[in-house]
Every structure is written in structure tokens, then in C-alpha cells.
């Protein structure tokens, strides 16, 4: 896939990329809009988003009322349709997290399914070619750095070369969420492509997490301490399994600057509903100390097979453990409704607690059902109405807004001169 241009505008000097107006951003594979939110918080204008899932699109539209939210499979959008929706004020910045592995759209026997050129990444490149934004920002999981095609080429090298062929200077780095004040051990692989060379393509850390007696080195004394899990959620109502509501009142005032920041502009708590755990699950959680895996519990408290008294064949220790309150949380996956246990309550996290851990402000409301049963089961039973990304999925899939904001602010200082 090549993106050759007659006029080599990308060879203009860096000073010619300076913008005097508000940068326009188009979000692809947008999900609920965490990536967009961070760029908006940094001072950009979000002109639109493309997202296939109905509930995630509804969440995006509700929280970005001034943007065009297209609920479409990106592969079905023609160039003419894209220009119709976004060509009047074309994006200066294109963002998104196109799946590059395991989501191949190539037919069997027609190329390597692990090659990003046979995946949804090619749609991302197509939009970059169409609008020629000044900046392209792509995110993915860190493991993509290890991925190789059948011909042993690295997926990352292909991605970079495709963007370079489009006339961009390309940079990549793994960013740590805790470096930007997000109370979660979360790493994201970020690719930044720019029409002009960037002296500092990635933001410098503003925070640092220190575990136990670990010493801060001489060059990190200026960094703020990263908030902990408990500092992120301690002001939310302490509810039990099956309790809570989609709209609740604040009961106590904010207890630290992180909570104050995320409560700004919101008069209510949204999406704070706890899972309806069975009695056996609650008893299991009661017996859990922080950091203790479920496999270490007495046998009578260990998980059973579905609709059976027999012990489960597989126990997922990496998920089923109570989180330490005074450390950042482990990485929230899309299925975190069945993962980590609240540090003090005998239940999993609520969507709002997950949103706090991801750095979403309280005013950001997630649409759709809080959770649904297995996607495979829904598909098998033909329950199309629920075959969407629930609130937990949307939160776990998102780019933390505060990380996105740090990326955006760093880029804006350069494209604005």
C-alpha cells in the first residue's frame, strides 16, 4: 500500500506546520471516546468519530454533542461518504486504535492474516491518505512490538513504513499510564506520524509511582506522586453486591486533587452499579486478602463449573484477586466486570469505579447496559439487541483520557509553534 503524492507538502519546514486555529480531530475506531476526550481537554475540536458498535457510538455522541458520530463499519464507508461527512472541515489530526492482529479482513489464502495491510489498519491508512492530516496518532497494545507476519517481518515495521510511504515522519514509544497521573498500571504502544519532523514527539512524565522503599532518583524529584487506586475511588458510595444505581448523589466531598479534578462539572454520580454476585461468590471475596489469588483459598470457596458442584477446571488467578488500595490498580481489561475485587467491598468494581481508574471525569456518562452475558452466547442465541459493547467493555477498551491529553498537549505546543 503506497501513498505517493505529486506535491511533497510533507517536506515543508517545521515552521510551516504552525496552526493559528483550533486543530480539528477525527477519531476512528473511536469506542466510547476516551482518546477524543483527551484531545478535546487539550484544546482541540472533535469533528467526528467512526465506531461500529451501537452502544459505544451512543456514548460517544452523548458526550461529544458537537461532533458527527458515525455508527458504521469503517470498511463500508466510501471515500465520497467520508468527504461528505468530514471534508468541509477536514481533520488536522487523525487518531485511532485500528486492530492489527486477529482482526484480519483478508480472505483465506489471500495474504498473511497477521499482516496489518490485510487488517483494519489499511482503513486507517486510507483515511490518512484521503484527508492528509498534519498529525496521525495510533495506539495499540504493547505486545504488538513482538508481533511478526508469516514472512517474519515485524508488524510495527510494516505500520511505520506504510506511514512513511504516506509522507510522514514516524515515531513510536510505549507510554506508562502512571507517568501521567493515572492510577493504573497500563502500558500503551503509541505511534505518532507528523508531516514535519518533531523534536519531542512524546510527552515527558509528570508523575511517578514509587513502591515501598524504592528510592526516587535525582532526575525525578520534580515529578508528582501518582494517585493510588483508593485515592481514585474512596469518595464514591461504598455499595455492596447488587447495589447502586445509574444515577446517584455524592455523599461525601472529594478527598484529594484527583477526585476534585474528575468531579469537576458533575452534580451526580453515574454508572455506579455493582454486579449481582451470588452468595458463594460474595463469601469467596470475603475470604480474599489483598493480592491473594483465588487458587490459594480453601477448596470450598474456589469457583465451580457452571451449574455444577464440581471445581472449575481453570482458575484465573491473574484476574480474581483483591486489589491493593494504596497502589495503582492493575490494567483494566474489557472484561473487568469479572476481574479484580474491590479493595474493601466484597464485589468487583462498578463501571464508575473503572472509569475513575481510567481517568474519565464523572460528567462522562456511559450508555448501553452495564454488562451483558458472553458475546458468544448472545450470538448463538440470536440476541442481537444485546450484542454490543457494554459499559464495562467501553471503559476497559478506552485510551485513558489523561494519557491522551498529555499526548495532545505535547503535540499542540509544536504545531502551534
Distance between the termini: 32 Å
So what's the CATH class of the largest domain? Alpha Beta
CATH topology of the largest domain: Rossmann fold
Mean pLDDT: 87
Shape: globular
How do the SSEs run, as a string of H and E? EHEHEHEHEHEEEEHEHEHHHHH
Low-confidence stretches: 1-15, 103-109
Give the proportion of residues in helices: 10-25%
- Per CATH, which architecture of the largest domain? 3-Layer(aba) Sandwich
Compute the number of helices: 12
Tell me how many strands there are: 11
Secondary-structure-derived class: alpha/beta
Beta strand %: 5-15%
Description:
The chain is α/β, with parallel strands linked by helices. It folds into two domains: 9-208 and 401-415, Rossmann fold (3-Layer(aba) Sandwich), CATH 3.40.50.150; 229-304 and 312-397, Alpha-Beta Complex (DNA Methylase, Chain A, domain 2). 25% of the residues lie in helices and 13% in strands. It has helices spanning 34-41, 54-63, 79-86, 121-131, 155-165, 229-233, 257-263, 279-286, 351-358, 375-380, 391-397, 401-415; strands at 24-28, 45-51, 68-71, 93-96, 135-140, 169-176, 187-194, 207-208, 224-225, 244-248, 269-273. The strands form three sheets. It has a seven-stranded mixed sheet with strand order 3-2-1-4-5-7-6, with helices on both faces. It has a two-stranded parallel ribbon with strand order 8-9. A two-stranded antiparallel sheet has the order 10-11. Helix 1 links the parallel strand 1 and strand 2. Helix 1 (34-41) packs across helix 12 and helix 9 (351-358) runs parallel beside helix 11 (391-397). It is globular and about 60 Å long. The two termini are 32 Å apart.
